[in-house]
Amino acid sequence: MPYRKLAVKAIIVRRLGQPEVMTLEELPDPVPGEGEVLVRIHAAGVNPVDTYLRGGQFGYSPELPFTPGIDGAGVVEQTGPKVTKVKAGDRVYLAGSRTGTYAELAVASESQVYPLPPSISFAEGACLYVPYGTAYRALFVLVSPKPGETLLVHGGSGGVGLAAIQWASAFGLRVAATASTEEGRSLVLRNGAQAAWDHTDPSHWEKAVEWTGGVGFGIVLEMLANVNLARDLDIIRTGGRVIVVGCRGESCIDPRKLMAKDGGILGLSLANASPQELEGFHLALEAGLSRGFVRPHIRAILPLSQAPKAHRMIWEPGALGKIVLVP
Ligand code: NAP
């Protein structure tokens, strides 16, 4: 391999641990291989999974050292051999990469880059794949809701929750959501939820069922199943489904509650999406962006060097959309 000067700033994790294990270093330029694209990153989206990978939690243990980051947006700097989908100068968003997006440059396969419309900022483009892909899978791949069906987004103020509210309201579902702060509840209402409650207030369970006329929800999208799953089974209607999107521990449930309601619990991982499914998702996303109902809400834009701060912030209560890092 030819000598390449150290020229690219990137966050590096050399050992798993607390946020401070992420350090900003200078690395050699990454080189795109066959079918790959070099992207100058203008913004990288921060997702909870980035923190699990950095900390080695929940069974994720990546090979060290690595640069974190799945989501990103920027401009194609160079294309490797046999790339036909994009060219140098194109604005793109990333759906993963080979080298990590918390960096000035990232190498991704051509199948991981998608055109970013001129009306969408790089920061917004860095908040598309993981949140909207996960919400899309949960709502339209795992279940087939009918317009008018009731949905509770249990944890609506974060990246996936807001994406789910936007998809579901555009599709015609009756959407309610929860958030622990007044600001979070106002945000979910502005994004299409028709009712909002505080998930830290025990009375929200009763209020939620009341909102459905006592019938219960057709779908509950659960962001913290270890805390809520057992009670979720009380608030679904007959034939209702709880979809586990997020879970940070174990949960004890009474399966008889499912029997009584022909109910179901489904879990999902975005990583299980097939290439065909992802193509469908990106087309839906393109339509959502052009019609304007897909619109990430950005809470904070921080310099790349503050990646440790971003990882602390995303674990704090009071989510308000996305945190983005800029090189
Ligand atoms: P995020 O932006 O950090 O948002 C977290 C959300 O959880 C906020 O709305 C937060 O509300 C809410 N929450 C906190 N405590 C809650 C409680 N007791 N009950 C209900 N909701 C509560 O994270 P995200 O990107 O939206 O992701 C949400 C979860 O899904 C995370 O656990 C993440 O790891 C997981 N996830 C899974 C997949 C997958 O493939 N399965 C993909 C993406 C994300 P407040 O801050 O207002 O309290």
What does this entry show, briefly?
With 327 residues, this protein is α/β, with parallel strands linked by helices. It is built from ten helices and 15 strands. It has helices at 48-55, 122-125, 129-141, 159-171, 182-190, 204-211, 225-232, 255-261, 275-291, 307-313; strands at residues 6-13, 22-28, 36-46, 71-79, 91-95, 105-109, 113-115, 150-154, 174-178, 195-197, 217-222, 236-244, 264-267, 298-303, 322-326.
Key traits:
Quinone Oxidoreductase, Chain A, domain 1; 2 domains; single chain; seven-stranded mixed beta sheet; 327 residues; globular; alpha/beta
Describe the structure.
The protein has ten helices and 15 strands. The protein has about 325 residues and is an alpha/beta fold. It has two domains: about 5-130 and about 295-325, Quinone Oxidoreductase, Chain A, domain 1; about 130-270, 3-Layer(aba) Sandwich (Rossmann fold), CATH 3.40.50.720. The strands form three sheets. Strands 3, 4, 5, 6, 7, 14 and 15 form a seven-stranded mixed β-sheet that branches. It has a six-stranded parallel β-sheet with strand order 10-9-8-11-12-13, sandwiched between helices. A two-stranded antiparallel sheet has the order 1-2. β14, α10 and β15 form a beta-alpha-beta unit. The longest helix is centred in the last third of the chain and has 17 residues, at about 275-290. The protein is globular. The structure holds NADP nicotinamide-adenine-dinucleotide phosphate. NADP nicotinamide-adenine-dinucleotide phosphate binds near residues 48, 134 and 154. Homotetramer.
